[in-house]
Design goal:
The strands form 6 sheets. Strands 3-4-7-6-5-8 form a 6-stranded antiparallel β-barrel. A 6-stranded mixed beta sheet has the order 13-23-17-14-16-15, with helices on both faces. It has 495 residues and is α+β, with helices and mostly antiparallel strands. Strand 18 (422-427) and strand 19 (432-437) form a beta hairpin. The protein is elongated and about 100 Å long. The chain has 2 domains: 55-80 and 200-495, no CATH class; 85-174, Elongation Factor Tu (Ef-tu), domain 3. Helix content is 20%, strand content 31%.
Length: 495
């Protein structure tokens, strides 16, 4: 087997850091510079795009949106499950008393339940609730204890050993003739009526301030170079500082997205260390517990689905579908994959005899296959789900998560599944349910200051007249965070 050199994009950083006073051309240092002054070489004035399009952004623009906010924190509420179910339920030996170990017990008398053992498919018991610690913790002994009476057997658990991993869910209720409704005690209407109050889960995130700067002296700003450069707005010329300024802006715009993907909240100990040691944080308001932000990868790790070691088999992918069925069952989903994982998907689909051909609805692309293909997506259908997959440059580029580790040893992030469309969440400010993209960015903005993407000039060069500094400083700043809503429907593919 041959050896490829360099190994998948060996990294030699091209950027350099210089003191502002040294940013000038010097042909008096000897060596090649002297040679260049004696004999005129044949010079190509245009730069070669050695690494193609080097920007990495576009992911969030494709799947999300940006909206302003006016606070140090964004908080949203998400609906919990509608139906009542528990796993990890225990049952006494040769008895019918259940112990609710996960969640708050809300089982009440007259509710009918199904009791299942995930480790024993033959074990299924239908029962009715007799008494519950949810309303009688003293009489029951504890709030999480429930007494049930099976319909067709003497006890739920007929064995001599207690069961510890049962699943219990409510499938209805049953009342006697002439009853007055759900009550906590008795069969004749005596006792207090019961009802189930809905609950919700609250999530939050905080924005971070991202900054960058480019500086050029007045001398270099007026120095002509031999390489023709082009700026983002289409202007061209031989002033090198235009190139450097443009690349600083491009790099900063990529950071705005990458920070939302990779961001992580600091714990108390490390947050205190950051405040104590990192420049600009000393004495920062808000304290050590407000350092960092929760990015996409962290959000999915904390509350989403993680598939480790995807091997490219249909059986592996069907595990994802089975898990999606247990969550929101959102029909349209987008797959952003590294090259290796994308090829595994292609191989999987190629083995299915034109699998998915003509069977995919391109609803997220206004039902246009051409639009999907133009944006770099290919669609396929499995079960009741439509998937649109594409290669994610961020996972392939050698300057980020790509490179040799991705192809040889396996990178820790191979791809992500993002549900398409919007979710319904409760907005505490508006006091009502609203529709939001599952993935969107919130940035600080008000009538006083819009911090989505700020840029300004300081110094005395390039039109700036803010100080006596013989230089131009281009400043960039943004304050933003990512909202990953309904993260239980996201999937992270890891090595």
């Amino acid at each position: 087997m041959g050896v490829l050199s360099p190994q998948f994009g060996s990294l030699i950083p091209s950027q350099t850091m210089q003191a502002l006073e040294g940013n000038y051309l010097n042909f008096a240092t000897g060596g090649a510079n002297d040679f260049a002054q004696q004999y005129l070489p044949e010079i190509y004035e245009a730069e070669v795009e050695r690494y193609g399009n080097r920007t990495l952004g576009g992911f969030l623009r494709m799947v999300g949106a940006e909206m302003p906010m006016m606070s140090d924190q964004v908080v949203w509420s998400e609906q919990n499950r509608l139906h009542i179910a528990y796993d990890g339920v225990g049952c006494t030996a040769a008895g019918s008393q259940l112990t609710i170990n996960n969640g708050t017990n809300v089982l009440m008398p007259n509710m009918t339940v199904v009791i299942m053992d995930p480790n024993d498919p033959s074990f299924t018991v239908k029962a009715i609730v007799d008494n519950s610690g949810a309303f009688d913790p003293v009489g029951m002994g504890a709030a999480n204890l429930v007494d049930v009476i099976p319909y067709t057997r003497a006890n739920v658990n007929a064995g001599a050993v207690a069961k510890t991993n049962l699943k219990v869910f409510v499938y209805g209720s049953e009342f006697g003739k002439g009853s007055t409704g759900p009550v906590t005690t008795g069969q004749t209407g005596a006792g207090d009526p019961w009802s189930i109050q809905p609950s919700f889960s609250t999530f939050s995130n905080k924005p971070i301030i991202i900054r960058d700067r480019y500086a050029v002296s007045g001398s270099d700003a007026s120095q002509i170079g031999w390489v023709e450069v082009a700026t983002e707005d289409g202007a061209s010329g031989y002033l090198w500082y235009l190139k450097a300024e443009g690349e600083t802006r491009m790099r900063f715009e990529d950071y705005l997205e990458i920070a939302m993907v990779e961001g992580e909240l600091a714990n108390a100990v490390q947050g205190a260390a950051i405040v104590a040691n990192v420049p600009s944080f000393a004495g920062a308001g808000g304290g050590a517990g407000t350092i960092g932000t929760e990015g996409l990868f962290a959000a999915i790790n904390n509350g989403g689905n993680v598939l480790s070691g995807y091997a490219g088999g249909l059986q592996d992918f069907d595990q994802v579908l089975e898990n999606l069925d247990t969550q929101g069952a959102i029909e349209e989903n987008m797959l952003f994959l590294d090259r290796k994982t994308e090829l595994l998907f292609d191989n999987m689909l190629a083995q299915q005899n034109s699998y998915g051909a003509g069977g995919t609805s391109y609803g997220v692309f206004e039902n246009s296959e051409d639009m999907a293909l133009n944006l770099g997506f290919s669609g396929f259908r499995r079960g009741s789900y439509d998937f649109y997959k594409t290669s994610w440059k961020y996972l392939n580029d050698a300057s980020t998560r790509g490179g040799s580790s991705n192809f040889v040893n396996g990178d820790n992030i191979d791809g992500v599944l993002v549900p398409a469309g919007t979710s319904s969440v409760y907005d505490q400010l508006l006091g009502t349910n609203i529709r939001r993209p599952f993935l969107h960015v919130r940035y600080r903005a008000s009538q006083a200051d819009d911090r989505r993407m700020k840029s300004w000039l300081t110094g005395s060069v390039g039109g700036a007249a803010t100080s006596n500094l013989d230089a131009m400083e281009v400043n960039f700043l943004s304050e933003r965070c990512l909202c990953t809503q309904a993260r239980n429907n996201f999937v992270l593919f890891t090595a």
